[in-house]
Amino acid sequence: MSIVKTRIKPENMSPKVLIGDESTLLSIVERDILKWVGEGKTNKDIGHIIGKSNETVKFHLKSIMKKLNVVSRTQAVSKAIGQGFLSPHNGHNRKDTQPKLKICIIGLGKGGTAILDIFKEDPSIEVVAVADASPMARGVELARKLGIPTATDYRDIIKKRVDIIINVTGSGEVRDEIKKLKHPDAELMEGLSARLLWHLVEEKRRRIKERERVLKDHEALYHLGLVIENIDSMKDAASAILDYATKLTSTPAGSLGLFDESSGEMLLVASKGFSAGFKKVDRWEMRKGGLTSYILNQKGPLVLPDVRDYPNPNLLLVREGVVSLLGVPLTIEGRIVGVLYVNDFKKRDFRAEDISLFSLLSVYAALTIERVRSIEDMRQLSITDGLTGLYNHRYLMEQMHKEVERAGRHDHPLSIIMLDIDRFKDYNDEFGHLEGNKALKGIARILKRAARTTDTVGRFGGEEFCIIVPEIKKDGALAFAKRLLKEIAGTPFPNRKITLSGGVAAFPRDGKTPIDLIKKADKFLYKAKRQGRNRICS
What we know:
CATH superfamily of the largest domain: GAF domain
Number of domains: 4
Strand order of the largest sheet: 10-9-8-13-12-11
């Protein structure tokens, strides 16, 4: 973003924008757009002139109004005139003081077509006619679309009163004939002059194309910012970042890994363009001298035209057929957040523009990941028990309502297990509440480790735990609960042996609502207590 310089004025006066060169505030494209706005052209008209969509024109106008600190198109034009960016003669009543330069072009091959393509956008030039011996020449169709008269015999157009005749046929015979027939005031441009003009035109075309590419890339980053602004899921954020990264660099594959500070490992959160086997390796250690470690030690993007040339190549990438790699560390204030890769399955040298844009994207990515991670941490704190890390009572009840509704809708089995620590009050009285807390955390770890990913394990309250077991009938849940009790009873706790009692209830036999299921499971739990504890009843 360009910097607006200000001059400090007395307190009762506002700062005034200083007018510098054209890069100080408004670009050439933005000035042209303001000029056309002043002439009364609509967004659609302007889009047609520059060959872009209405949305792109709106994007430009929004940027212009932000730079000029105004809220309307009219204000933008007025302020631009006041600050010297536009001539006060630009507008509806503008009268051209200079007549247009009239030109005809002979020869519509590559050179002639390029010249025509550029001249059509210049308001000070009028191409009055073109000629080529072949009606199928590449520039003939363009001329017809522009409403420019065409001819197959150049002699039909050179007698027109024009300022310049551009001959790009390369024919001496044509040149001699033109000199005989042209109007005395018309200038003939050909040979080295025409070639020079063509090179200048090509250079201008290249710069326009490059400027449009940069604009398109930065529009993509702008839209990425709008997309990720409302994302609050790490999975969605990582997918959006990776999708934009591969599009901006025109690469077929890539991945994004997050750094897990607790384990010191990288976690794969998004991948694209790889096999199903690649996604199975969702966690990896950062080997000393390994590719990930090397990238994380860089201050910016790392380019590997061929990963096989790296001294310690990543065998997983090699097996996937990856050849080229562009990677960048994701950091915030020197702290590692993750790493972003884009890959190609063929050898390639990434352009400096791609690397620069990729580096800018990494800043967006790191900030987004940090924001989403904070949101997810807060969400996790709101649904988990602070001591054990298991889900809390509120979340358990929400999940139970969802699972009961799903089981009823699809006629699927559902069971719940209620567990209670035997004689836990005595344990606290004898060893203290700190030791009791350690026992609760130890039991929570066992329950969490034993449960499936589809199960919901929570602390129901005090020393009572609840496990929601979807897609499992009562017999299966009973067998699972018995294995849990056996494992806990066999676990050596610091002070003494700890056992649990439990009850199992199943939908819909034992209840059709969460409250009915909990009451029934509790009834079976207290039955287990009465029968001697360290057992499960159902």
